[in-house]
């Protein structure tokens, strides 16, 4: 006997869907409108076609910003994912220290992005900052406001401090979901710690790590507030990532056409990579 399902609950979701669509589609269509038109002021627009997209894709400035963004994201993923897994493996599974560790891990995630940038700006200043004074006291010439390598290192260190906790919490949740029967069987077989991680924990963390990598990719690839407050994109254009360059073009130069085209290209790159991660995640679920 087939049961009749009640679909009336979907009507409760309709207002939320309409609100989200309204808040998302109108700004998106505005950006699309600017990306295919040219204006000379006085609210007069002229059709420009795909000219802005061609200009952006051929621009050395865009290529440099995109390369810096990709390099930063790659560095973040290569550092935060292994570090997050290592920290999660060291955290206790039982006892009173579990709550303490979880709270400590969650604290950096609760701090607003602009506050994180301001904190690290003061913390890393070579004259008055604790980190800057300590590094310089070791005989190392450190000044992130003038040295490109120092600016990159400080920006990466700031992001690692801020967002590694997300990978830790996700990985820890995945580790806690592994049944004890797997560990008992491993102890009976005399498996080493590396063998347990390689053949039990890592395969079971496959989906969780896919989600963690996806989230960290999106966050790091669209990062703006923290490096802008910390370095302002400097020294020079050393830390001018794609998001910072986009804001400079849109608000600093008020070139709305190129900025709109760049933002759509930016959006498509993020969407493409997210689709690849999502496809990989669904394929792993189908195979498991």
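-> sequence recovered:
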């Amino acid at each position: 006997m087939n049961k009749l399902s009640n679909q009336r609950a979907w009507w409760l979701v309709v207002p939320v869907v309409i609100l989200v669509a309204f808040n998302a589609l109108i700004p998106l269509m505005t950006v699309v409108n600017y990306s295919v038109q040219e204006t000379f002021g006085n609210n007069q627009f002229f059709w420009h076609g795909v000219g802005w997209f061609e200009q952006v894709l051929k621009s050395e400035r865009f290529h440099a910003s995109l390369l810096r963004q990709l390099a930063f994201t790659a560095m973040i993923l290569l550092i935060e994912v292994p570090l997050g897994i290592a920290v999660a493996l060291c955290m206790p599974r039982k006892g009173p220290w579990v709550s303490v560790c979880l709270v400590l891990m969650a604290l950096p995630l609760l701090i607003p992005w602009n506050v994180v940038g301001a904190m690290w700006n003061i913390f890393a200043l070579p004259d008055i900052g604790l980190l800057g004074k300590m590094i310089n006291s070791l005989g190392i010439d450190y000044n992130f406001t003038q040295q490109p390598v120092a600016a990159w290192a400080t920006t990466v260190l700031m992001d690692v401090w801020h967002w590694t906790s997300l990978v830790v919490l996700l990985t820890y949740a995945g580790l806690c979901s592994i049944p004890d029967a797997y560990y008992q069987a491993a102890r009976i077989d005399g498996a080493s710690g590396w063998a347990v991680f390689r053949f039990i924990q890592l395969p079971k963390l496959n989906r969780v790590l896919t989600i963690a990598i996806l989230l960290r990719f999106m966050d790091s690839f669209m990062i703006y507030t923290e490096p802008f407050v910390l370095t302002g994109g400097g020294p020079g254009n050393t830390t001018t990532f794609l998001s910072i360059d986009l804001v400079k073009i849109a608000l600093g130069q008020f070139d709305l056409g190129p900025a709109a085209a760049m933002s759509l290209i930016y959006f498509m790159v993020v969407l493409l990579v997210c689709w690849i991660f999502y496809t990989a995640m669904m394929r792993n679920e189908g195979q498991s």
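The two ends are 32 Å apart (CA to CA).
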